[in-house]
Amino acid sequence: MTDIFKGLFARCFGDDCGIPSETPLPQGGGDRRYFRLSAGGVGCIAASVPDAREGRCFVDLARIFSEQGCAVPRIFAASADFTAYLQEDLGDTSLFSCLGSQGYEQLVRNTLRELVRLQKVPRALWADACMSAPFSRRQVMWDLNYFKYEFLRPSGVIFDEDLLEDDFERMAETLTAIPDEFCGFMMRDCQSRNVMVTADGPKLIDFQGGRLGPSLYDAVSFLWQARAGFSPEFRQEMLAYYASLYCGSDEDRMRRMLAPLPDITLFRTLQVLGAYGFRGLVQHRAHFVVSIPQALQNLGDLLAQGALDSYPELKKVCSALVGSRFAVRPSKGGRLKVEVFSFSYKKGYPEDLSGNGGGFMFDCRAMHNPGRYERYRSLTGRDKPVVDFLEERGEVFAFLRAAWSLTDPAVERYLGRGFSNLQIGFGCTGGQHRSVYCAEATAAHLRRLFPEADIRLQHREHPTK
């Protein structure tokens, strides 16, 4: 542990707490490093930031938004040069890890509500704290060229650079013509991994790249996130909800706000592909590599909807990308097979048919057992009365979130490294109620997050279910 972290911790919580323990946390897309510090019954998250400007920006913005009642982490202390700071510990549950579980729709709604609250903080309060200049033609061209050089060129797709530049300039003109009334604080990377779910509701993080810009960009970033897997119907429902929060009941204002939706969605998709190309193809980070096929699926949807019709050269190259090798996740040994089991501990662990060993086994027996009640004994965890019993108590949701915090990164890395098998088991006393429910929920969750994997579900004690 650095002396800086020790000093900041003592300044915040007092010397009586002693020297805190330090646990490294997974690194995100940037170069920041995070650690969980705890001692004497108190704790926080410590951040090490190579770029002092970035550190100062986050600290200043977080303090401003906290004072305005926004759902962001509190800042406890920062070093003099802002390369290290301590912030509120929001736990380990991201919105991304909750997607597909019971009640996630309301979490999405609550996140959009908090996003609008953040976007509507008067710009005079935060404008000077931003390290990035307001959204402009220059920034649009930077992102479009990021896509060109980090994803399009490595793809090998042939294109006419002059014609493509004409399309880029036309798009930049459209995007920078958005009226000022629909601009506010733009997080820039608003997506479910940057939303933490706490007892007090969703909290927004990673907004140090924020700037003045089109508010709709953040809503699109959130709802069109490649790995979120939202259905078109759910996206449209949530987009209408967002617009109503932002514009009130003024339908004409909502219509004008949503008018640039096709161009903003296309622009965000291209920017994301640029990031996936750099972080995934160049830096070889598994999460970004396995996200490419879903981002290209979004691009294919935009092609089908006519969003690229005004950009002929871009339309040509995007059509080629959607049909390229990048649209299908390659692996060394074929498609990753994830076997999800329910089983009874009385009959032992499931057999490993792959011969690879390893995987995860989760013990569901600490949860209240429906099998203790006569009316549930002939049913399984797939039957509605048992489902209602488990969900009404609520403990199953915390259990699954904890399990998924381990299994999701493993599936992600297995895909990235070309592995062929992973086993995930849920056991309970009889292998009938709690384990069946958890296996069903986990298989559905993994199928939605990882469509490139082969998710197989087996209820060992109830093979016909």
Give the topology:
Layout: H1 3-13, E1 21-24, E2 33-39, E3 42-48, H2 52-67, E4 75-78, E5 84-87, H3 95-98, H4 104-119, H5 123-126, H6 137-155, H7 161-175, E6 183-186, E7 195-198, E8 201-204, E9 211-214, H8 215-223, H9 232-247, H10 251-258, H11 261-282, H12 286-304, H13 312-322, E10 337-344, E11 360-363, H14 384-393, H15 395-417, E12 421-428, H16 434-449, E13 454-459
Parallel strand pairs: 10-12, 10-13, 11-12
Antiparallel strand pairs: 1-2, 2-3, 3-5, 4-5, 6-9, 7-8
Helix pairs in contact: 4-9, 6-7, 6-11, 8-11, 9-10, 11-12, 12-13, 12-15, 15-16
What does this structure look like?
With 465 residues, the chain is an alpha/beta fold. It has 16 helices and 13 strands. The protein has helices at 3-13, 52-67, 95-98, 104-119, 123-126, 137-155, 161-175, 215-223, 232-247, 251-258, 261-282, 286-304, 312-322, 384-393, 395-417, 434-449; strands spanning 21-24, 33-39, 42-48, 75-78, 84-87, 183-186, 195-198, 201-204, 211-214, 337-344, 360-363, 421-428, 454-459. It has a five-stranded antiparallel beta sheet with strand order 1-2-3-5-4, with helices on both faces. Helix 6 (137-155) runs antiparallel to helix 7 (161-175). The chain is globular.
